[in-house]
Amino acid sequence: MSEKFRLDKGGLINRNKKISFKFNGKKYFGYAGDTLASALLANGVHLVGRSFKYHRPRGFFGAGVDEPYAIVQMNRNNEVDPNVRATEQELFEGLEAKSVNCWPNVDFDIGAINNFLGKFFPAGFYYKTFMWPKSFWYNLYEPIIRKAAGFGAASIKHDKEKYEHKYEYCDLLITGSGPSGLASAYAAAQNGAKVILAEDKSRFGGSLLTSDVTIGNQSGQEWAEKIISELKSMPNVVVKNRSQVFGYYDHNMLVMSERISDHLPKTEKYSPKQRLWYIRAKEVIISSGSIERPLVFGNNDTPGVMLSSAAKEYLKVYGVLVGKKPLIFTNNDSGYETAIEFKKNGIDPVVLDTRKDPNSEIIKEAKDLNINIKSSYVVVAAKGYKKVKSADIAKISDDKKNISTIENIKCDCICVSGFWTPTIHLASQSGNKTKFNEEIDAFVPSQSKQKETTLGSANGIFTLEETLKTSFEKGNELSKQITNKENKVTVPTVVEKKSSNHDKFWCVPLPEGKNYKRFLDFQNDVAVSDIQLALREGYRSIEHVKRYTTLGMATDQGRTSNLNGLQLVSDIENKVVPQVGHTTFRPPFSPVSIGAIVGREIGKHSKPTRKSPMHYWHEKNNAVFVDAGVWLRPRYYKQGSENLFEASKREAKNVRRNVGVCDVTTLGKIDIKGPDSAEFLNRVYTNAWLKLPIGKARYGVMLREDGIVMDDGTTTRISENHYHMTTTTAQAANVLSHLEYYLQLVWPELNVNVVSSTEQWAGAAIAGPKSRDVLQKLFPDLDVSNEGLPFMGYMEGDLFGVNAKIYRISFSGELAYEVNVESDNGNYMWEKIIEIGKEFNIQPYGTEALSTLRIEMGHVAGSELDGRTIPYDNSLEGLVSKKKDFIGKRSLSKKAYVAPDRQKVVGVIPLDKKTSIPEGSYIVKDAKAKLPNPKLGHVSASCWSVEYDNPFSLAIIKDGKNMIGQKLFALSPLKNKTIPIEIVSSHYVDPKGERVRS
Amino acid sequence: MLYIKCPHCGLRSQNEFSYGGDATVKRPELNKEVSDRDWDNFVYLRKSPIGKHLELWQHISGCRQWIKVERDTLTHEIFKTLKANEEV
Ligand SMILES: [Zn+2]
């Protein structure tokens, strides 16, 4: 198909580079520098989608971020991208896109029947229509809504593209490269400020690309090019195109999404698709310009009706005619600029001006060009279903209330201009208290909350001369304050045509007997009648009207609809717009892909992975790993075809019979130094610490101030004023912060320093009756006998050339030692232990066996110390000193904590000695009692006892102390199990603790 | 994201800090009688003001110091930051 609507010359596209692309399966051609929209329009394609609610045919309305209709689904390099605006998507070779929100296709859409059943879809249609009967919801309403709604379908495949995050700091962030952005950036850059200039389109220059002005002795476009190339050459300036600043957050943090590869057929190697910039700016200049406002008339959503500024942009930037018989409908001079461009390119437009007798330089030029101008005229309705074919027009009375005889005029597009709306979204997001400017019928930024300044048409200034003057000034002033340098530039002289005042008229009355739909919100299909209905039904607050009708709630954030909606509400309510007020703008200004928000923090990279120095040994020896916080720990070491249960049983049994070795590097370690260390520990732990001898370890429990157990572990006195504390893997970071809190804020008089040493030490626990034999061979020169190194003893030694610290502590309940060496020597130590332990049948064991060993010994751990239990609950009351004060002590005397039937940890065995009890099971007296069955407690941890070869669990139950011997039930509704049980002591194996001392 | 001036390190983004609650709460002294009411006030009860609030933050990914931050809970404006041992 040839490009019937492309001019022979003109525009900023590259006519030497022809590009082929597909839309809805059909092949077309365009040029490099086109957008998908401009290329389709060049081919005469206007029908691109169906509307959200009524499935009415929709075309192009804008030429950029203002576009409410032309949302397409992209297929790029075998990846789909939903919710892409055709007006923003740059053309590339092989581009494939299709329409959304239409089924079976855009030309014949079954949903369009909604258009004729319009009475079923009035304001609040979701609330009204889908309310009853309830049973219809899942089977009928939801599937239909899901199929009919939405702007495309997300892929369910993993996105292969890469997205990046970048953090940046600057003196001035300038959002938009139109005249105000360029002038302020230039002035600031001259003063040496670090400037970031962001432009959301591919081309810099904003309105200068399409306006007929002279700056100095250059055209606006040439001037923009010159300024940009100068800025690009300056080391203190970052200039970014295809970059949308979409969010303004606290303390001048702004977020910008840079589309790096979306305009290419395929992302280049080592390049991300998009990059998200987090920018902290000392000052922000909002130069986001303004968006043309539509006029409201019958069927104003017909393809071919578009903003006059868009028509001008297609002409001047892309050399594309949006029609060959254009009708321009305007209430201000902007429509004339578009008419003049048409005329200059050999097309005869007709201009309908709502004003009675307008006069200005621009209008004079149009008249001189013999353009057909009809004053006091309006478009009553567009005619044509899939494309404008003609328009019903009429003269309108001076008071704008009555229209006279309707005339029909042939046309193939209607370019509308209802004046301009400043783009205040970012200012509003920053917390700026906007105010209503009567002169332009729109809100403009007013009182700043953060350090932002809005310039140019975004601030309601519509002449280039004033825009440049104020922007140079502001750029200079703001940067000067930061850099203390001034290198003032002279403001160039500007030649521009003067325009006259706009007409406040915006909505054409319905002719007698007609009920044309007159749309306000084009993306969400909200018509004048919907707002009227909402107000009739009693909605008053603009926030409520918005939610009830969905006005301005689409992805375009009401860029073209908000003000007309406000006008309508204020007209009906007989208020002025500022009384109605505008709804709150929230980020993002424009849709951002989820991939960009996530960045590289995806899959394995969503959190760091910590590995012990022995990790690769574990890997080589068939370890199956488990996440322990951010650490990876061996869960078990697989031999042959073993499963988890078999392997962990073998490993645990070997510890009880021979000797095992476990990687305990992940335990939190805190180095404590200073003359007041003992006193500090004495306040932190519940038990006494003042008399711990050098070379001895002690088990301790620490509480929060509310009496709940925070953590447990052993601390060893290395020398007079030096202690080595261990914490659980999970609580390591919290415990350090906790200690720092008390040292820095509560007891600053204590002379103590704490520092994490978790990563400095690699640890191996050697446990089992033969562990002493292994230790003796590892340290032949040391006396490791029960007398030489008693239980809870500590000594240092030489492990085949490396320094080692030996702690005789036990988590497994067996005779056990923990050997620590510097992390770098961890693997060396581990291999030595395995090598030397061979003759004693040493085997590595993982966390599963470790759990089994501690559970059957009745040692409490994370599943009991779960943030809800006090020392008594864990049978740790023996460690609570009655003599001294400590953190959380006062809470322990609370009534509930000293109740005689207070919960306590117990052991649980199934009566059949076969059925494992799921963790989390309830414990009840009567399995068949009426619901809710009173719960006595819950099972906190379960294992298969290797000592007795039957299941064993720990549970925390009410009055646990007096429950030993009771026959109860464990219920697991989740696994649908009811298990008869007997309560036993939590110390199932070696209740007197003889083994650890042997 | 807040921009917090650590009195030890300078301006840093919020994600380097962790929040620590009301900075005006004083822990009852050790080894002193405390009524149930006073203890409960200390452990559980906190004000939730709109406006100025003196609060604790720890510069957890920086110098690890606990600092005091005077912040407006409504506007997020930060008026002042102090070292642990400084008073407003
Ligand atoms: Zn710091």
Strand and helix map with partners:
The complex is a heterodimer of chains A (998) and B (88).
Chain A: E1 14-23, E2 26-32, H1 36-42, E3 49-50, E4 57-58, E5 71-76, E6 79-85, E7 95-99, H2 113-116, H3 125-129, H4 136-148, E8 163-175, H5 179-190, E9 195-198, E10 214-215, E11 218-219, H6 220-232, E12 237-240, E13 243-249, E14 253-259, E15 274-286, E16 290-292, E17 305-307, H7 308-318, E18 326-330, H8 334-344, E19 350-353, H9 361-368, E20 372-375, E21 377-383, E22 390-395, E23 407-410, E24 413-417, E25 420-422, H10 425-429, E26 433-437, E27 442-447, E28 452-454, H11 464-483, E29 494-495, E30 519-521, E31 526-527, H12 528-536, H13 542-549, H14 562-573, H15 577-580, H16 594-598, H17 615-620, E32 623-628, E33 631-637, H18 644-657, E34 659-663, E35 668-673, H19 677-684, E36 697-703, E37 709-719, E38 722-727, H20 732-746, E39 753-756, E40 761-767, H21 771-778, E41 794-799, E42 802-807, E43 816-822, H22 826-837, E44 842-844, H23 847-857, E45 904-910, E46 922-924, E47 937-945, E48 950-957, E49 967-972, E50 977-984
Parallel strand pairs in A: 1-7, 8-9, 8-15, 9-12, 15-28, 17-24, 18-19, 18-24, 19-20, 34-44
Antiparallel strand pairs in A: 1-2, 3-4, 5-6, 5-7, 10-11, 10-29, 13-14, 14-15, 16-25, 21-22, 22-23, 26-27, 30-31, 32-33, 34-40, 35-38, 35-39, 36-37, 37-38, 40-43, 41-42, 42-43, 45-48, 45-50, 46-47, 46-49, 47-48, 49-50
Helix pairs in contact in A: 5-6, 5-11, 7-8, 8-9, 12-14, 18-23, 21-22
Chain B: E1 3-6, E2 10-13, E3 18-22, H1 36-43, E4 52-58, E5 66-72, E6 78-83
Antiparallel strand pairs in B: 1-2, 3-4, 4-5, 5-6
Bound molecules: zinc ion.
Terminal Cα span of chain B:
24 Å
Count of folded domains of chain B = 1
- Report the radius of gyration of chain B as a whole number of Å: 14 Å
Number of helical segments with 4 or more residues of chain A: 23
C-alpha geometry of chain A: elongated
Number of E-type strands of chain A: 50
The helix-and-strand class of chain A reads alpha+beta
Q: If you consult CATH, what is the topology of chain B?
A: Folate-binding fold
Heteromolecules bound? zinc ion
The chain pair with the largest interface is: A-B, 24 and 26 residues
The CATH H-level homologous superfamily of chain B: Folate-binding superfamily
Low-pLDDT runs of 5+ residues of chain A are none
What's the total helix number of chain B? 1
Q: Could you say which overall geometry of chain B the principal axes of the C-alpha atoms support?
A: globular
Question: What is the structural class of chain B?
Answer: mainly beta
CATH class of the domain at 163-290 and 422-495 in chain A: Alpha Beta
How much of the sequence of chain B is in beta strands?
35-45%
Supply the CATH architecture of the domain at 163-290 and 422-495 in chain A: 3-Layer(bba) Sandwich
Going by CATH, the architecture of chain B would be 2-Layer Sandwich
**Tell me about the biggest sheet of chain B?**
4 strands, antiparallel
